[in-house]
Specification:
By secondary structure, the chain is an all-alpha fold. The chain has helices spanning about 10-20, 25-35, 45-55, 60-75, 85-90, 90-95, 100-115, 130-135, 145-155, 165-175, 185-190, 200-210. The chain has two domains: about 10-40 and about 160-210, Endonuclease Iii, domain 2; about 45-155, Endonuclease III, domain 1, CATH 1.10.340.30. The longest helix is centred in the middle third of the chain and has 15 residues, at about 100-115.
């Protein structure tokens, strides 16, 4: 079975041009914001990407980055340490660095899944999107939204439609609903025009919210 498709710089630019021809509303956003950059994001270790995803839940990028860096520094490193280091670290030190008790539980559960072999992060890149979601959501604190963000930003999958994301839903309302929120079915139907690049279309829904 061939490996799932991953966005690259070239394929992302080609897909952006293709979408501009198919969807006039996206064409306007593309003209304003330029090509989608999902394919140019740095590739992190999958475990590190999942830890970051948990830390960043429901926080602004700035606040989450500060907490993440403090927590990592509390373990004497500048990069995300392996699961064993997290499990051995005093929980009080991780909490003092700014990590909430709930997110600490989630990260430690992730670490246990990795160390006992029930989650092999090396296999994720070869799985289908739905298999990745099914695998990751077995970890406490990793819901469908977190798994979809992992698919889009870490595995750089081209055809993810994260309808559980408030920004994407609000973007749909602004671009296609004259400010009125669309139903999940209506958004899914609208996004059919984007296939097989719904990740890129979703990325432009976030960009739409940056406009006055």
């Amino acid at each position: 079975m061939p490996l799932p498709v991953r966005l690259t710089v070239d394929s992302c630019q080609a897909a952006t041009r293709w979408l501009a021809r198919r969807d006039p509303a996206l064409r306007r956003l593309i003209e304003v914001h330029g090509p989608c950059t999902l394919g140019v994001r740095p590739r992190r270790d999958s475990f590190q990407a999942l830890v970051r995803a948990i830390v960043f839940q429901q926080l602004s990028t700035g606040a989450a980055t500060t907490i993440y860096n403090r927590v990592v520094a509390s373990m004497g490193t500048r990069t995300c340490p392996p699961p064993a280091r997290w499990l051995a670290a005093p929980e009080a030190d991780l909490r003092a660095a700014g990590l909430s008790g709930q997110k600490l539980k989630y990260i430690l559960d992730l670490c246990r899944h990795v160390t006992d072999g029930t989650l092999d992060t090396r296999r994720l890149h070869a799985m289908s999107d739905e298999d990745v979601i099914a695998t990751l959501t077995r970890v406490k604190g990793v819901g469908r939204w977190t798994a979809e963000m992992f698919l889009m930003f870490h595995l750089q999958r081209p055809d993810v439609l994260p309808l559980g994301d408030l920004g994407v839903v609000t973007g749909f309302a602004k671009v296609y609903g004259a400010g009125i929120r669309l139903s999940p079915d209506a958004m899914t139907m609208q996004a059919e025009t984007w296939r097989p690049y719904r990740s890129i279309g979703s990325w432009y829904m976030w960009r739409a919210l940056e406009e006055a």
